[in-house]
Specification:
Blueprint: E1 2-5, E2 10-13, H1 21-27, E3 45-50, H2 60-65, H3 67-73, E4 75-77, E5 89-93
Length: 97
Amino acid sequence: MITLSGRTHTKTVEGTIGSSLLNLAQQSGIDWLYNCSRGTCAKCRCIVTEGASLLAESTDEEWDRLGPEELEAGYRLGCQAIVAKPGDIVAKNKPYF
């Protein structure tokens, strides 16, 4: 199960391998901020507090926008964070602004 928190809503949803955290949030009606869905705006930035190892490796877009310090702290871009393995994931939308 994947627990996603937006600005005011939190829901636990069934995880789909190959889906991004942003797509799962959109499909579930969670108020997750985003603009581009390509990894360029970083508005979908989130903190993954559980299950980070169940996501695909960080993308070049994430390395460009977030950098090593934020990635090491558990931050990802929701549009780039793809579910790779089943299990429990907890993420909260944490845009810069």
